[in-house]
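The data layer described in this paper is built around a simple, fixed record for each protein. We quote a single record here, exactly as it is kept in our systems:
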Amino acid sequence: MRLGLIGAGNMGGAIIKGYIASGAGAAGSVTVFDKDGGKSAALAAETGASAAKSIAALSDVSDTVIVAVKPNDFDTVLPELAKTLARDRLIISPAAGVSISYIMKFLGDKSKVVRIMPNTPALLGAGMTAVCRNAFVSDGEFDAALGIFKSIGRAEAVDESLMDAVTGISGSSPAYVYMFIDALTNIAAKNGMGADKARIFAAQAVLGAAKMVLETGTDPLTLRQNVCSPGGTTIEAVNVLTRNGFEGNITEAVQACIDKSKQLTK
């Protein structure tokens, strides 16, 4: 696969760095372009990819193009891409709120579009990516697209109607988890532990808990109950979280994220 990336920002960079680092794609088969030439040059230098000087130049050498620009820039980038990219090429979009039908308005009724919702842990090969497609993407092409994102973590096919929910649950949720880790770190420091060591304890606990969910197949409620001995320390903390509306706060926050995603969809 000759992969092109338009937009060398945080998400685009995370995808390309993870993809190349995993060995799923050769650096020589990847081309990047950003309107800020310094960004594309820096990403190319770091990964071994090639830097294109224009969208047209990138289109000439790419079978699949990831358009990783801000949603507000799609109205500028897509018309230019439509002029230069062959109609049988695959377009992948990670932009929140940008629907497949909106992209097709610019690229044509039979354009091949895959929409994704990744998250930034993709940089470390620990991403979670939702992937959906339109009717013009073949099974083979879709499998190839899934392969890109499986190389940087986990990837699951979903219906496009679930993309707003995915945004709240996995696309944005690393930010919520960082808040949790920060809170754990701060209270540990208040109780005498050095901040650097506290951060390691907190982050590893979160990582381990997540692995328990993914690898044991046990539901989170049961896992929580397994940790809580009657009259013990853990249940004391859980009771305080419950009284203070911990689960309700998470639910309300994620729903606000989902609702905002729906508002932004075009």
